[in-house]
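lol ok so funny story. i was supposed to be doing the assay writeup but got distracted and ended up predicting the structure for this chain instead. priorities right. anyway since i did it might as well share w the group, maybe its usefull for someone
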Amino acid sequence: MNSFAMLFPGQGSQYINMLSSFFQKKDNIFKKIFDEASEYINYNLLKLIQNRETKKRDNYKYIQSAILTSSIAIYQFWKEKNGRCPAFMSGHSLGEYSALVCANAIKFSDALKIVKLRSKLMQKTVINQPSLVQAIIGLDKKIIENICLQHSPKVVSIASINSDNQIIISGDKSAVHKVGLNCKQKGAKYVVKLNINTPIHSSLMKPVSEKFQYVLKSIKIKSPTIPVINNVDVICEKNEKKIKKALVRQFYSTVRWKEIIDLIKSKKIFTMLEIGPNKILSNLIKKNNNITMLNTNNLKNFLIAFKKIHKNNHEH
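and the output, tada:
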């Protein structure tokens, strides 16, 4: 049987009017799930994604909840159509929570609670600490690591290894800026400032991770019904304590995305489906010739992906 993996995106996948093609039918599952989520967190997420009179501050505060809800809604729609189960799931940063909900490890309402707090704590880190996040395109990881080390004790960390060609750095604003300039001198093709206003996955996040750990204590996490490859260790944890520890470490550790994709490929899985409102993860994998990358960012692409995955199933 031809297996596939489901991938869930993180922050940065949002845009105005995302998912609009899914909301066209009356009383559909998307509206139901967005209403449910809005009630849980006491904020109108539908208004946020349609960009109707929302404050910029609300955007930062609730965008993670909106992305989580988008992925859950698309997944529920997949299930409603009797879509096949993937062999593996994995989520990029925030996307790890979407994966854990879809794998029945965390209740949706609990994930919303955690993600809302996660946003709040991330915002707290920037109050006294100007930060910056940049993507370094076309430079070897080892070179970037060495440049980062030269700028300590100021914090600048590798936040995410997205592919051989794209590495994200994060941390103290001036240090990240200097590292970016150095990377350019050392031959990076591009250095791109990302629209993220917190020092994601850097050690500046360590102090708030303790508060996060405390809140996680009251949340029940079950063993996932579908294996979820985590961000920090690139393994599928089943144990509640270990899953929680990995989520806390994810706050201030590198997202090892390239290794996650390599692990999926090592299991002879070459079809991957992005469950989210955009094509961020699809674009990262695009250059990987032997992978069939499908996405669900609108109704048309969802239906194409659905057909391909179920057609493949009959052929094997």
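The radius of gyration is 19 Å. The longest strand covers residues 131-137.
back to the writeup now i swear
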